[in-house]
Amino acid sequence: MSSSSMRSFEYLESLPGTVFNRLYKQPSTALAIFRRMLPQLAKSFVMAMLYMPRPLPVADLDTWVRPGSRREQDTAIDLLERLQILKRTAEPNKPRSYVLTNPFAASLRQALTGGGNHRSFGVPSRTHAEGQVTKAQLDDFARRQWEGVLGYMVGSTGVGLNDEGAKLSLAVKHLLKYGRLVEVRGRSVDITQDGFAFVLQEVNAQVWTILILYLENAEELGMDRVDVLSFLFMLGSLELGQGYSKANLTDTQLQMLLDLGDFGIIYQNTPDSDSYYPTRLATTLTSDAGALRSTTAGFDTALRPSNNDDKGFVVVETNYRIYAYTSSPLQIAILSLFTRLSTRYPNMVSGKMTRESVRRAINMGITGDQIIDFLYTHAHPQMRKNANFLPPTVVDQIRLWQIEGERMKSTVGFLFKDFLSAAEYEGPCQYAGDIGVLKWKNDAKRMFFVTRHEHVAAYLKSQKEKRREGG
Question: Are 139 and 279 in contact (CB under 8 A)?
């Protein structure tokens, strides 16, 4: 599951069952969650059971999966149950079975076969007299607005650069502050550790992060979060370059058009026009496309899919000097967070990483590993010709500069202990490692620490039920 899918999944998982029931009444929502959030094995289970007239016995489902893939099966079943797509049934004198929930199953069937008057996939506008908008115009608008958001976060106007980005509304600035992506001190705006991690994400993950913050803030704005979620999932199914009518939208969704326009996700000729246009940032919300880097080729790839030249622009020398072949204010502003820039040419800037410049970034909450990740991701093609293209002395020194100010790192999570046997301990511990939530373990004391407990708890529960059936 990609980082953007995980972010949206974590939010959905926190919702009560009544919200899922309303959400799944929209075929566009059912299709979006099926496409975006389910691994291939979970999708196979759903499609195999979608037209079954009766529940599927657990024993029959087990025969679909090879014995060596039981862990993947448990993960897929757990995910489907947590999204309330699948549920277990236990009727007297009948084996335990699985069945797809309604209205999810009914809505997915309708989305796949068509028909009905639900209009959950948008209503194409028939009024083109107000001016047809081209895909290139939509891409330019989305780029300008989104780079304006990123530029505000990294302070692109504070390094002697022209303020050519979009003017951000107060609502956008409030949302970035609410999400702790920036800290505002008087007139000064500083990026946080979470903010720098946000900048390094793929574009799609960035958009979903903003949208989750918007969802968390929706009730304070008097919005119905089911309307908000339904509209977001619908946007992912729309066609780029096609105008859509506003006639069937709710009051909440009409307000969203204005708010999402500030981020470049929606375009309107005027706020009073009868139609709106989704930009590429909207139409890829539920896309299965791979990760897109945001600060270099990310926008070129996200907004111009035909451009596959993912070229880096940063050269790092062993004496800590940096040469960046770019004229982008956004990229230069990011570099200035941890580099003392000294020279600027029309297509290049140069500077040097010093103890003071790196420590300044660390004091803002940016970690050494994030700086290294940025340099690694955006390394120039000439550097990539070497096996270890980032100088080890530079990588080690960045980490040493960080260690100077911190001796201990805390991680929020959950401790599992008191296992009765080694066999009982090894299974969930191995499972936690396989799904990437294991942070620490002590085999001698049969203890392990994880960042998320839901998957592990579900695994323990399923193992307990299997032992009970076997006994």
Answer: yes
Higher pLDDT residue, 10 or 389? 389
The tokens describing 365, both together, are 């909450």
How long is the chain? 471
Contacts of 310 (CB under 8 A, 6+ apart): 293, 296, 297, 301
Determine how many CB atoms are found less than 10 A away from the CB of residue 253: 20
Residue 295 pLDDT greater than 90, yes or no: no
Q: Which amino acid is at 297?
A: A
- How far apart, in Å, are the Cα atoms of 347 and each of 140, 293, 323, 329? 21, 21, 11, 11
Q: Residue 321: which residues within 8 A CB-CB, separation 6 or more?
A: 350, 351, 352
How far apart are the C-alpha atoms of 244 and 252, rounded to whole Å?
A: 17
Q: Which two tokens stand for residue 167?
A: 């003017």
For residue 442, what are the β-bridge partners? 447
| Burial class (CB within 10 angstroms; exposed 0-12, middle 13-18, buried 19+) of 470 | exposed
Per DSSP, the three-state class of 124 is strand
Q: How far apart are CA 307 and CA 27, in angstroms?
A: 33
Which DSSP helix (H) or strand (E) runs through 266?
Answer: strand 266-267
> For residues 94 and 354, which has the higher predicted lDDT (pLDDT)?
354
Q: Give residue 380's pLDDT.
A: 93
Question: In the predicted model, what is the mean pLDDT of residues 29-38?
Answer: 89
Q: Which of 237, 233, 240 is nearest to 256 (CA)?
A: 233
Is the Cβ–Cβ distance between 191 and 181 less than 8 Å? yes
Q: Which tens digit of pLDDT belongs to each residue from 231-256?
A: 999 998 899 989 999 988 888 999 99
Q: Which residues pair with 287 in a beta bridge?
A: none
Q: CA 68, 69, 74: angle at the middle one, nearest 5?
A: 135
161: left (phi over 0), alpha (psi -120 to 50) or beta: beta
Phi-psi region of 57 (alpha: psi -120 to 50; beta: other; left: phi over 0): beta
364: which residues sit within 8 A by CB, 6+ positions away? 190, 191, 192, 193, 196, 337
**301 to each of 133, 298, 374, how far by Cα in Å?**
21, 5, 18
Nearest to 294 by CA among 382, 219, 366, 209: 209
In tens, the pLDDT along 136-189 reads 999 999 998 998 898 888 875 444 444 455 678 888 899 999 999 999 888 788
CB 237 within 8 A of CB 121: yes
- Bridge partner list, 325: none
